[in-house]
Amino acid sequence: MKKILAVLLVVLLAAVFSGCSAEKDELVVGMELAYPPFETKDERGEPYGVSVALAEALGEYLGKPVRIENINWDGLIPSLETERVDVVISSMTITEERAKTVDFSEPYAHAYLALLVNRESPVEKAEDLNQPERIIAVKKGTTGHVYAQNHLTNATINALSSESACVTEVIQGKADAFIYDQLTIYRQNQANPETTRAVLIPFQESEKWGMAIKKGNKELLEQINAFIKDFRAAGGFEKLTEQFLAEEKKTFDALGFPWFFE
Amino acid sequence: MKKSPALFYKSISVVLVTVILVGFVWISLVRINHRLDFSTLWAYKYRLWQGFKMTLIMAFASLLVSLLLGSVAAMAQKSRFLVLSYLAKIYIQIIRGTPLLVQIFFFFYIIGTAWGVDNRYLAGVLILSLFEGAYIAEIIRGGLESIDESQFELAKAVGLTPAKTFRLVTFPLLMARILPALTGQFASIIKDSSLLSVIAIPELTQITQEISADNYRLFENYFFLGLLYFVMTFAVSLITRHLERMYKHENSAG
Amino acid sequence: MKIVLDKICKSFAGKTVLKNVCYEDDFNALAVIGPSGAGKSTLLRIIGGLLPPTSGDLYLDGIKVSFSEKELLAHRRTIGFVFQTKGLFEHLTALENVMLPLIHSFQLDKAEAAERARELFARFGLEEEGHKYPHQLSGGQQQRIQIARAMAIKPKLLLLDEPTSALDPELTAEVLDMLGELQAGGLKTIIVTHEMGFAKKACEKVVFVADGTVVESGDSRQIFTEPQTKALQAFLNKVLEWQP
Predict the structure, then answer these.
(1) Does residue A101 sit in the same domain as residue A211?
(2) Residues A186, A122: one domain?
(3) Are residues A195 and A210 in the same domain?
(4) B211-250: per-residue pLDDT in tens?
């Protein structure tokens, strides 16, 4: 009996310690696969989307294989701190607050916040939401959440865990509006025309998206910035648009909104 | 002089266990290069206090409603009206057999919306009570079945009315048997209330998640969260231990 | 006391336990004897109002016992019942066990009830056991406390269901002694028992129940010395085989 226990202990320890020596020559990219068409999964559950393609391009540039880690939104930055991932490419807005904890690359895209409004609600523009009777749905930790906390203090803000829950609350009238990026709001409105309206006119400065890396990792930061410059020059972003966002580009052009990658 | 060594070994063991546990967590933190800084939480003390109160209110309200629901369901199971008895049995089976998360989504976004229960606090209490009530019903049923039939026959023989039998015999015997299980259930209610965060009820877990999205200090935030929940469940266990002493008769006969 | 059992029948879920039990007599102490499973306990419970008969009638002292729940409650309060085992509330002390029916069935106030209980305990040598719980008491003590509880309500009839069957032999005597004393004082009893010696000495009437019916009955002196039926003869032979 004692021998068996000893062997088991050795096997256990070996397993634990072997797991410690991670492969150091791959690029681990963290993203929350819940944001189509930027970060999502294909029919087989494999990571798919604009950010995934971008990540692979980065990997190619750096000469490393890429591994995508699917992480909850509020776990992305902590995962950089604990070095669980090397870089976060998740359509993340560069903010002062976040820049205190991580380093951001040069912006590679910009986006505006927009509102998905319940059809019955009297809300026409963002300022209308700043009333005590208004209820706002936001996704925890997003810039929509931050915007609401800073500018819409009179309203009730319900911070939910998922985009779909937020949309559901607007559709069911439990919230007047959902604050999120233009593209998603547009798509959700298209999907729910009878119950929602979209207020796509920008109500603040555009938000810049950057890739996040662990604070102080100067080498990787330089490499990533160089990559973005090259990628843009080579027309990489146009290709991404064509591949994933053709329809949306047409709509944005028709509505006169500036495009993400310009 | 037998007492002295025993106390000595006890103290040493306590110290050793503490060192092992704290040491393990400490080493884990070192491995992921994490610098502890609990002062980051201080800025949020007002919101945390609000969240703590909300958790207590939701848990306490659910406690009352689930006790009621559980008692009713336990009795309904034995009813002679088959419809009532079947309803109760199905309720208990399905609610105990599905995750609370699923029930929250189903009852809030579908049933609640369909029948006009828009107030999410009310919905939260009802959903949590519905969930815990099923478990309480089973605890009560088990307790009742463990009471010897002879006690009820005895109650009849000494001329007690059904009402008096319940008050003087059934209830005390039941309490003595189910109080330990009920404590576990009360603690569960407190812990399960954390899931109400998915419908944005501003209880403790929701507040902590919002704070995490702000300051990214997952370890400090969730450790503190765990501590607060532990304080609540520990307080409950103390109260129940006191109640147990009231109803206990130094172990049942036989 | 005069008792009339008129064609009492009892079935449980299709199984017949008592069929056409008929008996009529005047008694002070009546012993019910017979092989196990014959339905003696069931019969006793019917007499005590704990079970309704499936059919048939029961008369005590000329009054028909009605088996409607409301009237049964009143009937049960005139009868003391002693069970074979587990006849005390496990969550109450000995004194509380005796006081409970006094307070809640007879509306005595707590002080009076306590007084009466203590008197009975003193009379039967149970003073030390007043604050103990049933699981702390010996079988003999539990049975004697049951009898005290039954006596506290000043019943017109005491029913005992094999009160000593679950006891070690040494404890049997103390219970039977207590019973004998009460009977001598005029208490009417019906006792289901295997203690043939007690049945012979302390009970003047005997009923022999076998296969769910009264096979033979009469004065105990005669029953034990000159059993008429084969069944009773066989039974007595078996039972008395090992008796001194």
Answers:
(1) yes
(2) yes
(3) no
(4) 888 787 888 899 999 999 999 999 998 888 887 777 765 4
E strand segments, C139-219: 157-161, 189-192, 205-210, 213-219
Hey, are the CB atoms on B168 and C48 less than 8 Å from each other? Answer: no
Q: Which CATH class is domain C83-189?
A: alpha beta
Residues of A with CB under 8 A from a CB of B: 73-75, 77-78, 81-83, 97, 101, 137, 140-141, 145, 158-161, 165, 168, 172-174
Residues of A in contact with B218 (CB under 8 A): 74-75, 78
Interface ipTM: 0.89
Nearest chain A Cα to B114, which residue?
A172
Residue A137 within a domain: yes
State the average pLDDT over residues C151-159: 91
Answer whether A137's CB lies under 8 Å from A170's CB.
Answer: yes
- Asked if B172's CB is within 8 angstroms of C133's CB, the reply is no
B45-247 folds as MetI-like fold (1.10.3720)
Check B34 against A141: CB less than 8 A apart: no
- The per-residue pLDDT for A23 is 52
| Any domain includes A247 | yes
Rounded to a whole number of angstroms, the distance from the CA of C146 to the nearest CA of chain B is 11
Rounded to two decimals, what is the model's pTM? 0.79
User: Is the residue at A130 inside a domain?
Assistant: yes
Nearest CA in chain B to C91: B249
Ramachandran angles phi, psi of B181, nearest 5°? -65, -35
Does residue A26 come out as left (phi exceeding 0), alpha (psi in the -120 to 50 range) or beta?
beta
Pair A58, A188 in one domain? no
Rounded Cα distance, A24 and A27, in Å = 8
Q: Does C134 touch chain B (CB under 8 A)?
A: yes
How far is it, in rounded angstroms, from Cα A194 to Cα A182? 19
* Contact between chains at B214 and A160 (C-beta distance less than 8 A): no
Question: Is B146 an interface residue toward C (CB < 8 Å)?
Answer: no
**At which residue do the structure tokens 């491995």 appear?**
B31
**Predicted pLDDT of residue A19:** 46
For residue C121 the two structure tokens come to 């305990």
- Sequence-separated (6 or more) residues with CB below 8 Å from residue C56: C5, C6, C7, C8, C9, C20, C21
Instruction: Tell me how far apart the alpha carbons of residues C98 and C164 are, in angstroms, rounded to a whole number.
Output: 20
Contact between A141 and B212 using a beta-carbon 8 Å cutoff: yes
Mean pLDDT for the stretch of residues A117-122: 94
A36 and A94 part of one domain: yes
CATH number of A84's domain: 3.40.190.10
Which of C91, C138, C156 to mutate to test binding with chain B, by most B CBs within 10 Å of its CB?
C91
Structure tokens at C29: 């102490």
Same domain, A158 and A83: no
**Which of B118, B197, B209 is closest, CB to CB, to A74?**
B209
A138-176: pLDDT as tens digits: 998 889 999 999 999 999 999 998 889 999 999 999 999
Give the residue numbers spanning the domain of A137.
113-199
CB contact under 8 A, C83 and B150: yes
B55 touches A: beta carbon within 8 Å: no
Q: Are B146 and B176 in contact (CB under 8 A)?
A: no
Residue type at position C56:
G
If asked whether residues A83 and A159 sit together in one domain, one would say: no
Chain C residues 67-86 within an 8 A CB cutoff of chain B: 73, 76-77, 81, 83, 85-86
Contacts of C87 in chain B (CB under 8 A): 150, 154
- Hey, is the C-beta of B194 within 8 angstroms of any chain A C-beta? no
Q: A2 in a domain, yes or no?
A: no
A37 with A64, same domain?
yes
Considering its fold, how many domains does chain A have in total?
Answer: 2
The three state secondary structure string of B133-149 is HHHHHHHHHHHHHCCCH
Domain ranges within chain B, ordered by starting residue: 1-32, 45-247
